[in-house]
Amino acid sequence: MNPKYLHSIDELDNLVGLIPKEREEMEFVTQTFPFRANEYYLSLIDWKDGRDPLRRIVVPDIRELKGGGCMDPSCEKNYTKLPGLQHKYDQTGLLLLSDVCGGICRFCFRKRLFISCERETIKDVSEGLEYIHSHPEITNVLLTGGDPLTLKTQRLEAILKELREIEHVNIIRIGSKMPAYNPYRIINDPHLTEVLSRYSTPEKRIYVMAHYNHPKEMTDVSMQAIEQLHRAGVIVVNQTPVLNEVNSDPAIFTALFRKLSFAGISPYYVFQCRPSQGNRFFQTPVERSYEIIQQAWQTCSGLAKRARFVMSHATGKIEIVGKSASHVFMRYHQASDRADIGKFLVFRSNPMARWFDDYRHHAIHPDDFVPVNKPKMHWLF
């Protein structure tokens, strides 16, 4: 099976039959944010259920046009060293290889790639590879976009070969939602798994950063694709944002964490949904997201709760590590300024906060924070 791709609401209507009002609203949304999906993924949606979570992930919703946000919430432009190459953290280089995905997630934080005339991805990666070669601190490279698995295997193979010839690049990561959106891309292309097997060695592995947002996406066909990646020696991990009306329920996250760990897919990051334009209604408040994850973990094994809950802020990955009735505790898990790595932050609780910047006026000076019934503690800022 090679599922057909759909790019218009007309095609969607022909496939599933839409109510005229919802069709009109969807077409209005696509004037701002485009639509892309495929028949396989759309077949997983219960079209009789207006609140189906996979529908929320890929089908335009009129609420995308409400609220603020910006096109570059993590200020990626500040860390773009060359067209198609970002270098934010010392040891990590990003190559943006494609502006196409298996489907367009309605909550995508990089949706500017699909609507802007200014290209950020590149076809010729030679300059980016030369940059990586000249920066020995880069030990791992993330291939992203868009989705690198939308590239032809021959093209991907050439890039993997050149990266493997750079001695200090030990890890290659491929960010892809294709195992969820279109597992047939993997199943039907034995050349792909042969290539991955060749360049994922015992000493230097290839990682696929899968994007399962809901356990419904983990179908038998999808698990077949994951098994083929495992057999190729690829390490598969998962990352997902907390998404309102998709997975913003502890029971759903419990099911997701369990299914991932059962399938040998390590939960890696849970993200606070970034405030990209159109994402407001997908965002749950930070402290609510934290509580959802904590509650979900109550009936999970240790293997199922290895993910870190972070915000990918312009200044770094900020992990939410704890919460009391009156305070929220964070630390820089990763930072653009190396001096900030590990820095501990204390804020007064702000139940309405949806992003790190919402806490800026709630910061606690170290000398002002005294835990109850304990000696005065000095927090590292």
SSE inventory with pairings:
Layout: E1 5-6, H1 9-16, H2 20-29, E2 37-38, H3 39-42, H4 53-58, E3 80-82, E4 85-86, E5 92-98, H5 112-115, H6 126-133, E6 140-145, H7 153-164, E7 171-176, H8 178-181, H9 184-187, H10 190-199, E8 206-210, H11 220-231, E9 235-242, H12 250-262, E10 266-272, H13 286-297, E11 308-313, E12 316-323, E13 327-335, E14 344-348
Parallel strand pairs: 5-6, 6-7, 7-8, 8-9, 9-10, 10-11
Antiparallel strand pairs: 1-2, 3-4, 4-5, 11-12, 12-13, 13-14
Helix pairs in contact: 7-10, 12-13
Structure write-up:
With 381 residues, this protein is an alpha/beta fold. Helix content is 28%, strand content 20%. It contains 13 helices and 14 strands. The protein has a twelve-stranded mixed beta sheet. Strands 1-2 form a two-stranded antiparallel sheet. A hairpin with a 3-residue loop joins strand 12 and strand 13. Helix 7 runs parallel beside helix 10 and helix 12 crosses helix 13. The longest helix has 13 residues. It is globular, with a radius of gyration of 21 Å.
Could you give a short description of this structure?
By secondary structure, this protein is α/β, with parallel strands linked by helices. 28% of the residues lie in helices and 20% in strands.
